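Hi F.,

I've been meaning to write this up properly since the lab meeting, where we talked about keeping a consistent format for the predictions we share between groups. The idea is simple: the sequence comes first, exactly as it goes in, then the structure tokens exactly as they come out, then a line or two of notes. No screenshots and no reformatting. I'm using this chain as the first example so we have something concrete to point to.
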Amino acid sequence: MLYLTNPAGVSRQMRRGLLDDIAQLNALKLRDFGDPEIATRVAQYEMAFKMQASVPDLTDLSKESARTLDMYGPQAREPGTFAHNCLMARRLIERGVRYVQVMHAGWDQHRSLTTELYTQCKDTDQPSAALVQDLKQRGLLDDTLVIWGGEFGRTPFIQGELGERKTWGRDHHPYVFTLWLAGSGVKPGLTYGRIRRVGHGRGERPGPRPRLSRPRCCICWASTTNG
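Output, unedited:
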């Protein structure tokens, strides 16, 4: 995250005074024009000011135990990795953030299923399980809904030449895919929905969608792209 510190010679008190003066000027414009974007801009300035104070503590892992870091895996100490971001998600949730998204990109294995998929699973399996376990042991899972999913599924059959295992892949398949949920009162072991025997199409609807209570929500998202 950029610009967490003020420029040289600018104290936090000076920054606070500057924002207060700008807010007064914006209040005059808001009174004259009634444009809600002005109020939004003031709110964003205030959020940025608060983040300058809170984010350094959020990202400081020095007080995390070795046991916790090991639970998330060897990449937990490396900023930008999925493991590190899962740990950051837990730290955000325990600070009261209501909606957190963690993304892992590069799942578009049209011709690299037998090589890249192993790496992707290695990156995500342990940290994902650790996030759920960590939330549970801290008493946060009861009112946090964890959703793990992606943009769409992949075909249940091979894409590419059957005799060329190194270039096996799976194509996009928007008709059938799986999400898993944990926390927020979700019943463990419940499977909702059906697919046809070979996984190529959706089966009969099982009934009304269950209502989910989610005071807080953490979404882990597997994306085919890097954007």
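Notes:
The chain has a mean pLDDT of 90.
DSSP finds five helices and six strands in the chain.

If this format works for you, I'll send the rest the same way.

G.
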